[in-house]
Amino acid sequence: MKEEIEKLLAEVADLKCKTRKEVEEARVRFLGKKGEITKLFDDFRAMDKESKKTFGRVLNELKNAAMNKIEELKDTVADDTVSDGPKADLSMPGDPFELGSRHPVSIVRQEIVDIFRKFGYDVAEGPEIEDDYHVFEALNFPQNHPARDMQDTFFISAGHPNPLLLRTHTSSVQVRAMETMKLPIRVICPGRVFRNEAISARAHCIFHQVEGLYIDEGVTFADLKQAILLFAREMFGPETEIRMRPSYFPFTEPSAEVDVSCNICHGKGCNICKGTGWLEILGCGMVDPNVLEASGIDSKKYTGFAFGMGLERIAMLKWRVNDLRHYFENDMRFLKEFNTAVEV
Ligand code: PHE
After folding, report:
1. Residue closest by Cα to atom 2 of ligand 1
2. Which residue lies with its CA nearest to atom 6 of ligand 1?
């Protein structure tokens, strides 16, 4: 046994291989089921206790030496394992993998942001969990004023003098802009908003807005009208007309709702515009002097306008989707419809 072990140790130490195949053959010769070292282990098992003591350790050393050597040789020889089989065909086309697509609401938000950026507006963002002051109080919604019911609110800490709540519009970001930015201010505020509304084809408790604010000396309603007209033409096409209808918001005076001419029937009347030829897209108005003063802006010197629109609504008009809920369900069949809009 002793000579056998020494002979094998020397052989293992001297072992040289050129290819993977040779390494594998050597492994089988020494360590395979019928390998020489494996055989020694069989003999070892039949030995008496005394002999086991003598050979156990050296035999294990031999086995480890053989295993290490084989591993070492595997790393050093050239990998010829594929050379026997067919070579990979490099001219084959790759496995295609599916690209994702932007969500339609993101596409519309980007379009709107790009348009207003061209007009010189900055983008401002703010917290979705807001306080009552920034969502209502600073925007001229007095405590207990019925106008607060226009936007059913999710309160987080009710009963507090300035409770936390989920913002119902991104006008809160405009308040923060007025508090912190230098005049003149030109910002748009895209973001997610929350209202406690029953979910239906036309309403959801979560949706997205882009609101805008422009404050400078001498800003007039004519500037507002022109800004909205330019925006509408960029967004819906150069032929688009707008019309303004008087409306009410606590934070603007005068206030208006804006319709664009229906880009589907071009005013003739269809089921999208419900036969009127017009589609409502946003609310707007001249910033109420109370709102300017609340944020420390001199309302004698400065005037401004604000506007706000719902992105899902614009996306519905753009792609003629008739149910708002599609935008929230993330059904791949729906989202894939917008695949072409991916920018790489
Ligand atoms: N904040 C209003 C809303 O959420 C939209 C709006 C913004 C109206 C600015 C007028 C001026 O409905």
Report:
1. 308
2. 308
Using alpha carbons, select from 173, 215, 204 the residue that is nearest to residue 190: 173
Whether residue 188 has pLDDT greater than 70: yes
Residue 264 has what DSSP assignment? T
Would you list the domain boundaries of the chain? Answer: 2-76, 104-338
Q: Which helix (H) or strand (E) holds 55?
A: helix 49-76
For 101, the token pair is 């697509």
Indicate the pTM of the whole model: 0.71
* Ligand 1 atom nearest residue 170's Cα: 1
Mean pLDDT score, 59-87? 79
How high is the pLDDT of residue 342? Answer: 46
Q: Which tokens go with 235?
A: 């967004």
Q: 104-338, what's its fold?
A: BirA Bifunctional Protein; domain 2 (3.30.930)
Q: What does residue 260 show for φ and ψ, rounded to 5 degrees?
A: -110, 155
SS3 content of the chain, % helix, strand, coil (to 5): 40, 20, 40
